[in-house]
């Protein structure tokens, strides 16, 4: 069979899984972009001018523990230094150069093109996310909070100057910052959050109302595209449409059609609920199978539920509330140490909507704490810096919230998508290839943490742009088996694989304090991988039986857990010849760090890899 015919056959098998209606719409959408029809649905408009946010009184009860870090961030922003992807501090000026990519040092050429005429992956600057990042308005959140706790007018002045400059250089529907409906939605939700922080949510300035309405028009005109993607886009855009409309309906003397706003509000709420029920599984797994995107959706929902409470909207139905509680438990079950860290499974592109705190990007506790507060007025964790985001939403009311710690030490399969095994020494999280959403080439990938330290790690994403995304999304960058130089599933596009595979999984069993699980799958080329995991108080034992062409078992060890370029003493390999080489992982988008990559060639029979706990201090 020719490669072209194989590709067509794979496409034909994949389309029904994506949804024939969704695929048909995406084809029409791309055609409408190409021939210029969609441009007429989104007319350009002149920039708005004026004051966005008004003066506010100073908060007198803001905890001093939070203030030092907040003001340090705010003062850095005043100097024109912005943080990209929660890691990289780049000088971009004040106001920022909105179309400058500080990673490539290039400025966008096509400043005045309609967004429908711009490519996601063909910009001269490089990765479009580097252009989008300042326009997500994380800086707005920091400056607004710094102004509210100090009364320093320099912060408020900068807010209005930068927003006026953004509006001037980003006329409606012109340029890359209007290209993505989710970007418009996250920006809108951030503006509503700031309006609440400044006590202006129900008395917004005319300019801010106009700015929000422009964003609502952009979102409302393209929700079908977001829904067709079956991921976080649909949820974010539905939330933006719903809550943005609510906000404008609560303004006195509103200058916009109430009929239009009510239509958008009802549409947004309906889409939000339907998307959540569709994309969140019974045990709480989010469709994208990514810890970071799981957190992003939770952050958007925390903001949404808080605004629903402020606007006195009806609560979500019971069925959805139960699904959201499971979503909370899912993320909590992924935490592997006392610092709130979890494996960065799946896509990890630096997206972090909730940043009203000083905790690190790798700390998932602030989002979990806020989500519980918004969901059912409960707090998972005791007092700590992770409470700062809760403070900004609920203030002194936090004292009334109930303590509700979660307990998730159970060894189990979650939604047939993830396996969690743990005891007092070790936590193991395994990705099971049973996706109903665009699957990644990571079947039976394992993340292993011993006494809170990550020993076998996930690759991260680094960049979605062009070839840099490939090594990190390849099976060779995951802790599993690769057959030859092929992938378990053929690539059909940048974010899409074909011939989706399914695993056969046995139950989790425990005998004589040894926890055991076994599963297998067959990849697109007929290769079979059988993996058995045994966890005891002495070791973690992994047995890999590989039936196919030229199997290679890959282990990826962070440099801090592997001293020197030799196999660490805590890792024993039997029935395999191993080789150490240099590999990479990306803990932060647009950054890669070296790690030790162990490649194991089987020498007959089942390869055994064993991690010995006695090598670690308690």
Protein described:
There is one protein chain. With 618 residues, this protein is of the alpha+beta class. It has 16 helices and 24 strands. The strands form seven sheets. Strands 15, 16, 17, 18, 19, 21 and 24 form a seven-stranded antiparallel beta sheet that branches. It has a five-stranded antiparallel beta sheet with strand order 7-8-9-10-11, covered by helices on one side.
Detail the poorly predicted runs: none
What count of helical segments does DSSP give? 16
What structural class is derived from the secondary structure elements?
alpha+beta
Helix content: 25-40%
Query: How far apart are the termini?
Result: 57 Å
Largest sheet: 7 strands, antiparallel
Mean pLDDT: 94
Q: In angstroms, what is the radius of gyration?
A: 25 Å
Quaternary state of the chains: single chain
Got a strand count? 24
SSE diagram, text form:
Blueprint: H1 3-18, H2 20-34, H3 64-78, E1 81-84, E2 88-91, E3 100-101, E4 106-107, H4 129-132, H5 138-150, H6 153-169, H7 181-197, H8 206-220, H9 223-228, H10 232-249, H11 258-279, H12 291-310, H13 318-334, H14 365-376, E5 378-379, H15 388-394, E6 402-403, E7 412-414, E8 418-422, E9 426-431, E10 446-450, E11 453-456, H16 469-473, E12 481-483, E13 491-493, E14 496-497, E15 503-505, E16 509-511, E17 514-522, E18 528-535, E19 539-547, E20 551-558, E21 571-574, E22 576-585, E23 593-602, E24 607-612
Parallel strand pairs: 5-6
Antiparallel strand pairs: 1-2, 3-4, 7-8, 8-9, 9-10, 10-11, 12-20, 13-14, 15-17, 16-17, 17-18, 18-19, 19-24, 20-23, 21-24, 22-23
Helix pairs in contact: 3-5, 5-6, 5-7, 7-8, 7-10, 8-10, 10-11, 10-12, 12-13, 12-14, 13-14, 14-15
